[in-house]
Amino acid sequence: MIAGQQVAITMHETGFPQANILPAAGSITLIPQTLNGTVSAIGSDGGFTTYTITLAPYDLFPALAVQSGQTTLLTNPSQVVVYADSNTQMLNTNPIAVGNVVRFYGLVFNDNGTLRMDCAEVLDGVPE
């Protein structure tokens, strides 16, 4: 897990816990999220098209990566490598090119300090 990922935490308690005791998490579920970013590189990896995107400085990943007390460090918190394949819904109106602002929707993972997304949908981006 990395600060900025969207997760749902489920706890199973039989009663309301005391104020100073946190209940144990029963399960943690990764939630898909939308990232808006500028495409800085396009490539391929296996059967995937890869898009390296640069996030805006106010995005959660670069904003939270510089907070004191971070135990999980990212190599470059402003970049995400997005993986799209034939199952990815291409809902964008313009072709994706380097320099375009694009929105990607999917699951974000921390791969040894590199943020990667398994993309489900590609949408038109919103100017930053």
Q: Quickly name the level 1 CATH class.
A: Mainly Beta
Number of domains: 1
Q: Please trace the helix and strand order, writing H or E for each element.
A: EEEEHEEEE
Q: If you consult CATH, what is the topology?
A: OB fold (Dihydrolipoamide Acetyltransferase, E2P)
CATH homologous superfamily grouping? Nucleic acid-binding proteins
Number of strands: 8
- Rounded to an integer, what's the Rg over CA atoms? 17 Å
Query: What share of the residues does DSSP label as strand, in percent?
Result: over 45%
* Total DSSP helices: 1
Class inferred from helices and paired strands: mainly beta
Strand order of the largest sheet: 3-4-5-8-7
How does this model look, in words?
The chain has one helix at 60-65, and strands at residues 7-10, 27-30, 33-45, 48-55, 79-84, 89-90, 101-111, 114-124. Strand 7 (101-111) and strand 8 (114-124) form a beta hairpin. The protein has a single domain (32-124), classed as Nucleic acid-binding proteins (OB fold (Dihydrolipoamide Acetyltransferase, E2P), Beta Barrel), CATH 2.40.50.140. It has one helix and eight strands; from the N terminus they run ββββαββββ. The strands form two sheets. A five-stranded mixed barrel has the order 3-4-5-8-7. With 128 residues, it is mainly beta.
How would you summarize this macromolecular structure in one to three sentences?
The protein is mainly β and 128 residues long.
Topology (elements, then pairings):
Blueprint: E1 7-10, E2 27-30, E3 33-45, E4 48-55, H1 60-65, E5 79-84, E6 89-90, E7 101-111, E8 114-124
Parallel strand pairs: 5-8, 6-8
Antiparallel strand pairs: 1-2, 3-4, 3-7, 4-5, 7-8
